[in-house]
Amino acid sequence: RVEQRERAGDTALQGALELAQELIRRRSVTPEDAGCQEFLAARLAAAGFTCEPMRFGEVSNLWARRGNGRPLLCFAGHTDVVPTGPLSEWHSDPFVPTLRDGKLYGRGAADMKSSIAAFVVAAEAFVRERPQHAGSIALLLTSDEEGPSVDGTVQVVELLKQRGESIDYCIIGEPSSTDALGDMVRVGRRGSLSARLIVRGVQGHVAYPEQVRNPIHLLAPALAEIAATSWDDGNEFFPPTSFQVSNLNAGTGAENVVPGSAEMLCNFRFSTASTESSLKERFEAVLRGHGLDYSVTWTLGGKPFLSRSGKLTEAVKKSVQAHTGRTPQLSTGGGTSDGRFIVDICPEIVELGPINASIHKLNENIELAAFETLPRIYLDILRELLPVHLP
Q1: Active-site positions?
Q2: Single pTM value for the model
């Protein structure tokens, strides 16, 4: 039986690298899917999955499921990638998968076409090994994770809710590892709250300060107070809420004109120790305290979420330990992920994927060794959570 398990793992290894290369060849710059999901659906259908393409706006989504029983274990991911940046600074074409120095290079290699390849071939190997497995397996794929995320996973989740469908366990293939595969998994994410602030003054000649109200000068002390504010202390699962300015613009282009307004773009990455409303209120209280004439537009990118610790977390830790010798750190750091939507229909979510050092960068890459280890980790999680069905 051990030999059978190893042979299944070897099959997963061989197929994962080839599949990742096939996906990287497809120029699926967000929100384009470039045929990735259609290609994957054909493979999954051959393994007994019922595949439902779900198109919302310009976004391609795929819901594929095998089985009707519980529990339902879902692998989630995105086929879209970020733009390449300057092609002249890539050492090889980002859409021509290239092997060199023990790594696979290409856009999406780490984020996250290799993870998709790993969990697809792991699912195929598991089905061959246990065609009568208990429960169900599903895949949820979108081409709108790297974009505005309005017609992707959030829409699929809403449709599943309307149909009364829920998920018991979800593994998202985001690149969660930092220095070595499996050293960190995500069990939650901070919320993201953005603001576009406009502070109004009075435009005029720089030589007549008595006739102007410089919005930059007016904003500066308020910004200093906001930047120095401690929003919360975090908690045992989340670091303290952070505030950052991403853009600050003012001016007419002339050096002798005081502008009539200043615009600031800023963002809170917030923990469950704060709320959307509390951050808005405290932020605007500072602006009012400085007597600013302002307007602000808020955008909630996602609420913070924390997965329930249970069978999935234990299965992940057990599998990672078995295949890497590491005990993964459970983290809620990093940016947002589609877990913020999936949590509405799934109590247990873990993000488990390759090293994230090169994501969104030039010459994005993944170590070839990951194609030996990651499919086996996914495969053992399936074995742990979906045993053989007993008649």
Answers
A1: 80, 145
A2: 0.87
